[in-house]
Amino acid sequence: MAIEAISAEYSPPGDDVAIRQSAQSEDAEFQEVLSQTFVDSGKIDLDAIFEAAGQQYNLSTSLLKAVAKVESDFRPNVTSSAGAMGVMQLMPGTAKYLGVTDAYDPEQNIMGGAKYLRELLDRFGDVRLALAGYNSGPNNVTKYDGVPPFCENYVSKVLEYMGEGDITAGMVTYGGPPEAAKKPGSSFSFGEAFSQMLLIKIIEMQMNSSKDDKNKVY
User: Which of 29, 194, 199, 206 could pair with 93 in a Cys bridge, judged by C-beta atoms 3.0 to 4.6 Å apart?
Assistant: First the structure.
């Protein structure tokens, strides 16, 4: 289950420099969050990362872990058929928008997923709608004026896991991105890069449209 932002009708902005500067600003802000180490004897403590992410973005760890359980079953190196990556299954454009430089790194991935979920909660003010937006893109939530029918099973699974109480994510070993992600042939083409640039701007515009209820905890 990937985070898929659906592109609405959108006119490409004329100032590519502004887009790059915006992305760089997001990256710098996000990197400041990554100030802790969660490695113990070569193993990465996912539970500690979820706890830190929950504190950073004012979210319950049970919600974050439930999303990760459904998305990847806590596997850091998994890639979906749609290209979603890591524990929280971040799409390339979403990861770039969030400031995530290595979507397979558990800390960056979980922190990035938490940041995105916080923005969706601030926008929609409802956990079910935020989860639907995480799964299928916020545009679909707006389009259907609620949880899209194809997201109902996903939302139900996350809430079911959340209702079971705290889930243990455990310890994992991370040795860098999967080999497929390192191959020169797997890099984006110009067209793909341009599409990702537009996607970043679209998500940024969507998230800036509504940022109420920032102190709400779910």
Answer: 199
Q: What is the pTM of this model?
A: 0.73
The structure tokens 């749609």 sit at: 82
Residue 90 CA from chain centroid, whole number:
5
Task: Compute the distance between CA of residue 89 and CA of residue 74 in angstroms, rounded to an integer.
Answer: 10
Q: Which of 71, 107, 160, 204 is catalytic?
A: 71
DSSP secondary structure letter of residue 172? E
Question: How much is the pLDDT for 209?
Answer: 62
The helix (run of H) or strand (run of E) holding residue 40 is strand 39-40
Place of tokens 């590519």: 16
pLDDT digits (tens, 9 = 90+) for 27-36: 667 777 786 6
Is 32 a known active-site residue?
no
CA distance to 42, 121, 169, 196, per residue, from 98 (Å): 27, 15, 23, 13
Residue 45 DSSP one-character state: E
Tokens of 212: 């109420």
pLDDT in tens, 126-181: 999 999 999 999 999 999 999 999 999 999 999 999 999 889 999 998 888 887 66
38 compared with 100, residue with greater pLDDT: 100
- Report angle CA 46, 136, 218 to the nearest 5 degrees: 50
Q: What is the CATH number of domain 16-202?
A: 1.10.530.10
Residue keyed to tokens 């938490």 = 114
